[in-house]
Specification:
Layout lengths: L1 H20 L5 E2 L14 E2 L5 E2 L5 E4 L4 H7 L6 E8 L5 E7 L3 H10 L3 H5 L5 E9 L2 E9 L3 E10 L2 E10 L3 H13 L3
Parallel strand pairs: 1-7
Antiparallel strand pairs: 2-3, 4-5, 5-6, 6-10, 7-8, 8-9, 9-10
């Protein structure tokens, strides 16, 4: 089972690297969705966009506020929901941004600003773009010695969403399939 997680993580990293190196072409991806790893209740936006958090990640009013502020470092983001695991230190933070920010985010991927990462808590940041179903998704994986954050931006109609999967590094193996299933539940 551990080897399966390592293999999945390796394939996921290869996907990220291939997406990063081919900025001209957006790669289509598939996710293995295991329904038993998903919550029965989903987040649904006003335009019908939905995503299921991992199973046993319950909606809450707050998360580690200092970390939350570092993850949601833009003034124009509107917090919509927080789901926190009841057995681990993982969380899913869902927020909405102005639709016009999507162009700025994609521009950042093409010409990253080194000053953005100088004051950052992250030691490694890997951006990529992929297509899943009908969604174009910008993904930024940020890592440090304690955390891995999968930051996903995607839009539907006039809504731009940000999904932040916050996972302690020591819990990544036990949560990767749940996160993959959750991302794959985008609808």
């Amino acid at each position: 089972l551990y080897m399966k997680y390592l293999l999945f993580t390796f394939v996921f990293i290869l996907l990220l690297i291939s997406c990063h190196h081919s900025s001209q072409k957006v790669v289509e991806v598939e996710f293995n969705v295991n329904e038993s790893l998903l919550s029965d209740s989903s987040f649904i936006s006003k335009t019908g966009f939905s995503i299921n958090p991992p199973k046993n990640w319950v909606k809450t009013d707050s998360f580690d506020s200092e970390l939350q502020n570092k993850i949601l470092n833009r003034l124009d983001s509107k917090l919509l929901a927080i789901y926190k695991s009841d057995t681990t230190n993982c969380a899913l933070i869902i927020s909405e941004l102005p639709e016009s920010d999507f162009v700025l985010i994609k521009h950042f991927l093409e010409t990253p600003n080194p000053s953005v990462t100088q004051d950052s808590i992250w030691t490694k940041v890997q951006p990529s773009v992929f297509k899943y179903k009908t969604f174009e998704v910008v993904q930024i994986v940020s890592q440090n010695s304690k955390l891995i954050v999968f930051k996903l931006f995607t839009h539907r109609l006039s809504e731009l969403f940000e999904f932040d999967y916050v996972i302690p590094r020591n819990e990544i193996n036990i949560n990767m399939q749940s996160v993959e299933s959750s991302i794959g539940s985008l609808n």
